[in-house]
Write a structure and sequence with these properties.
6-stranded parallel sheet, globular, single chain, about 220 residues, 2 domains, Arc Repressor Mutant, subunit A, alpha/beta, transcription
Length: about 220
């Protein structure tokens, strides 16, 4: 079962999502939150697999709630479900750790498929959100590059990580143990000040670190 937490300040939206998701045999809605603060608290209590997160909510918005959830519970996925597709919302949401970004006019069947893909490890963006993210990345490319603190081997691991490879696959590609890969990834997260693989991959794209270091 895919355990879902719904976070939205509109009761009608929560009810609609609950009604539809309950028709899916592999979904279980474990809770509802009316604001970001409740979403963080319920995530800690219920340990869902994924949080459907609204962006604009009282007490704590979806971006701040996502940051707190990913910091405390990195295994919990967050899918932004919102009415906003502008860069000022898209980029901070992805940087906060959201694994997906969809608009509320999404078709129900597409929403279900999006959730399943995110649970399977994919990052899913609405085309409008993807376009905004690409434009932001292009602007970043034209700005002076930030000097990164990674060793050549850590950069190699990061490059493999951005391809969506698992720790086992990275270990096989670099001829190291899986334990060594885990250590490198932990160091990468700490040095780049990111919380998960999605944020690390985003950093790599922004700073042209998607290719191996070229050093043994």
């Amino acid at each position: 079962m895919i355990r879902v937490l719904i976070a939205d300040d509109h009761h009608v939206v929560r009810r609609g999502l609950l009604f539809f998701l309950k028709t899916q045999k592999d979904f279980e809605v474990v809770g509802e939150a009316a604001n970001g603060k409740e979403a963080v608290a319920l995530t800690a209590e219920l340990q869902p697999d994924i949080v459907l997160m609204d962006l604009v909510m009282p007490e704590m918005d979806g971006i701040q709630a996502t940051k707190k959830i990913k910091a405390q519970f990195p295994a919990v996925h967050v899918l932004m479900l919102t009415s906003f597709s502008d860069r000022d919302h898209v980029v901070p949401a992805i940087e906060a750790g959201a694994a997906g970004y969809q608009l509320k006019d999404i078709e129900p069947d597409e929403l279900v498929e999006t959730i399943r893909k995110i649970i399977a490890g994919e990052n899913i963006l609405h085309p409008d959100a993807s376009e905004q993210l690409e434009e932001a990345e292009k602007e970043e490319e034209n700005s002076p590059h930030v000097k990164h603190p990674l060793t050549p081997r850590e950069r190699d691991v990061l490059a493999e990580l951005t391809k969506g490879k698992s720790n086992r696959e990275i270990a096989s590609s670099l001829f190291v143990t899986e334990k060594t890969v885990k250590t490198h990834i932990s160091n990468i997260f700490a040095k780049l000040e990111v919380q998960d693989r999605t944020q690390a991959a985003l950093y790599a794209v922004k700073h042209n670190l998607t290719e191996p270091s070229g050093k043994v």
